Fold this protein.
Amino acid sequence: MSDSGSTARTDGERLQKVLAAAGVASRRVCEQLIAAGRVSVNGRVVTELGSRVDPEVDQVAVDDVAIQLDVSKRYVMLNKPVGVVSSMADDRGQRDLREFAAQYEERLFNVGRLDADTSGLLLLTNDGDLAQVLAHPSFGVEKTYIATVKGVVYPNVLKKLRDGFELDDGEIHADKARLVGDPSEGRDGQSRSIVELTLHSGRNRIVRRMMDAVGHPVLELVRRQFGPLHLGTLGSGKTRDLGKLELGQLLTLARAPHDGASASAPPPRSKD
């Protein structure tokens, strides 16, 4: 990045005040960050303490990590239980996401979807622009799943998952595929294996369809990772706000150049 020295904006709020309000650091420390050339506005380094920004328009980063200036935005991680549909208003009377969003004052909605019979990491937010970018199929957020499947999965199956094959809606491959532990025997006496899959696709029921195609139907499926976010030890049905580092990583990912995803495009209704 080149040093612009100052921004051309004459209205708005002082940059150090906005950074402090966003929780980056005290105003004094924010001034030091600016003077050290560690703050950028709309992709250009700013070192002038008199610089002004519009928190609703300008994009600010510290050490190349994006900062959310709009403190009204909320970002919540949910460990969605099995049996919950990814909707804020299910018209068939099924258990939905409203029970988890109700504890927050903001009107939250989900980023992407998980099948009712899939558990794991789901992001809830009131940031519509971020949600549309991350959920758009062309963006291809990396996701990691843990799938308990029927049968003994051998190395040649993992290789096929990584190399790719054709489904009825086109070619698909996993970025990573590995066996977790050794195959075991279930209560029904049948062998089962645990496979970790990482992929970028957001196509409908893609993990289940991939495992069906290689002869190992899914028994249980959990999404453990979505982009830079990891489920960690968050319990089933529990929620938590994203930490500052997680949020910065997520915003940085969403603001990175990519093909096809547009803020004006409607979010897809694909399920994993």
